[in-house]
Amino acid sequence: IYTFRGAAMGNILGFTAAFDGTRRVVLRRNHRSRRPILAVAQRLVRHNDPQRLEVLEGLDKSLVTVRRGRRPAPVQVQGYARAEDEADAVAAIIASRVSGGEAAGDFAVLVRTNSDAAPVLHSLAMHGLPVRFSGASGLYARPEVRDLLAFLRAVADPDSSVDLYAVATGAPYRSGGEDMTALLEMARRRHRSLWWAIGEISAQPGVLRLSADTRQRLGRLRADMSASLEAAHRRPAGELLYEHLKRSGRLRDLVAAAERGDEAPLRNVARLFDIIRAQSAVLQDDRVPFLVPHLQTLAEAGDDPAEPPSDLDGQAVSVLTVHKAKGLEFPVVFLIGLVDGRFPLRGRAERLPLPTPGTDVEDRREAPFAEERRLCYVAMTRARDELHLSWSRRTASGRSRRPSPFLGEALDRPLEALHDGPRPTTTAALVERLAAASEPHPMVTMDAPTALPRPEEPLTLSYSQIDDYLTCPLKYRLRHLVRVPTPPHHALVLGNALHQAAAAFHTARSRGRPMDVDALLEVFDVHWSNEGFLSRQHEEARYASGRAALVRFHAAETRPGAPVPVAVERRFSVHLEGEIVRGRYDRIDETAEGTVITDLKSSDVREQRKATEKARDSLQLQVYALAHEAETGRLPAAVQLQFMESGLIGRAVPDGARLDKARARIAEAAAGIRQGHFPAKPDYLACSYCPYRDVCPASTA
């Protein structure tokens, strides 16, 4: 049990007194670590005696390993003169072994805090090793994100020459060299902005001698900026930025780079769009003039999000904090930075501990140190085959440090017996260190569950993911793995607002608080957005049709005898074809014939025959029927689609042939995703509705 999870040993010790008839099961068989690794970890944690549960309760919890390994020296200990030497040595060992054929994902470097990771991240980057880092920041410093933020600031204030210069010299315009210097000097002499100067050379080409290539690039920039400035006061910032990415060709370049294997820039841009979407939701006005100052205020306050997860699937060295490592395991673990004051991290005990019922039995002033020791035990027992323990005598600033007392406790030797390793002093080593210091931070990603689990683990899929893969595997990859940002679509805006209103109505009704039509329309208005429509007139027409549909819906649902659903928006997660399929039923009714599952649709279907055909052929409804069977052991009596705009209901009875086909489709999608098979599947109709048609090289639309 861990204090950082809110646990207290007093709760465990008092359990048997509070509950009669308890039975204690002692877990002793360890299936992860080799015997020498367990011995070192257990020797360390026994220094928490006599306040460990085993001592207090008289238990024997000596772990017995069931693994045998052939690798020599499962536990290795090394000291270094400087933190940089320690990081260089760890990276060199990993690089050498990866070059020898071992997988980068077999190695993990554990640190006590995020700040301790910086030296080893630099060293791993120097050796060209892919890295997955938990707790990284620095999204705003990535070139592709920095360029887009500069663009937004330039649109908010075109006379900000610093921001416009960043846009002009960044991707995709890349104007630079002597021409940009001359242009800036011209603006400076006239006491004008760079935006004025770009307009001046367009109106009077002879005012400044520039290369034809620079004129062409600046011409593109001026046209793009003018279009954005014109739209900035009408359109939301996210929509404006997406149009800029498309118009400038930058989105196509990012997608092409991702197809070549360089997905990080596109992921970072997608993360920026997530941030813009989240911040737009808290603003009364999400247009550029209001969003940009808000983002700047957040950045000045220290907000700098981490870069998004990568789907490296075992192809990267993991660098993570001990807290993040809980529950994970790796063949080879490097536990670095084992110096006094860092691990254990010296915190302040309470000056006046106040006794409270159920308080921990440990001395409150010693508890933080005991908790640090437990954390170190966690770190050591992440290793399956090898555990490398290391420390350094001096920080980067030259301050002297002592080895962690945990080293002496775990190794059962005095700290004075621990010696430094060799310090690199060659010219080449010093040059490499200087080069590393001058480079930008390495491209790292947060640790997260990868999109592709281990072969023995099930995939977790939703219906939309299954459908996207079957429609076009490349679309699945762009949407769910690379997460290419997409602009809002008017059909989704209408569908979401209708869906939220209907869900609120059914929920209120099931609780005995029926909602009148005005309250229903108010929910619709709250969830309405003006993004994604073709024009103001188009938005007004769709808004009016949505409200009219809800008035009809309210009349139908409040008529005498109208059934009340037994469940609304109920989530499910079931095993189908060896995978986990999850989703949400919009509505469940219990009728005389049995269970009926309904899914709400905003598409405008006006013929009963077509509504019935859509329900009969719907893979989504078949998946829902299979999910209900997996949950309850029986199929629903019927599944149906309720078309909100027309009020029509398409109904189907699950049958064996279609359900078998649905199982095969789930298995087909899962197999392709597991194999990493994501080819384009061009089809004119599918491409016409695909949000990536403008950037997909295989699109036939």
Description:
The protein has 701 residues and is an alpha/beta fold. The chain folds into 3 domains: 1-136 and 307-445, P-loop containing nucleotide triphosphate hydrolases (Rossmann fold); 139-300, PCRA, domain 4; 567-674, Lambda Exonuclease, Chain A. The protein is 47% helix and 12% strand. The strands form 3 sheets. Strands 3-8-7-4-6-5 form a 6-stranded parallel sheet. α3 (35-45) packs antiparallel against α17 (367-380) and α26 (619-632) crosses α27. The two termini are 57 Å apart. The model is unreliable at 422-451 (pLDDT under 50).
Roughly what fraction of the amino acids lie in strands? Answer: 5-15%
The CATH first-level class of the largest domain comes to Alpha Beta
CATH topology-level name of the largest domain:
Rossmann fold
Indicate the percent of residues in helices.
Answer: 40-55%
CATH architecture of the largest domain: 3-Layer(aba) Sandwich
Please state the CA-atom Rg, rounded to the nearest Å.
31 Å
Pick out the low-confidence regions: 422-451
Taken from the alpha-carbon principal axes, the silhouette is globular
Q: Please name the fourth-level CATH homologous superfamily of the largest domain.
A: P-loop containing nucleotide triphosphate hydrolases
Mean pLDDT: 82
* Main pleated-sheet profile: 6 strands, parallel
Query: What is the number of domains?
Result: 3
Number-wise, the strands total: 14
Sheet/helix structural class: alpha/beta
> How many helices in DSSP terms?
28
Strand arrangement across the biggest beta sheet: 3-8-7-4-6-5
Terminus-to-terminus distance: 57 Å
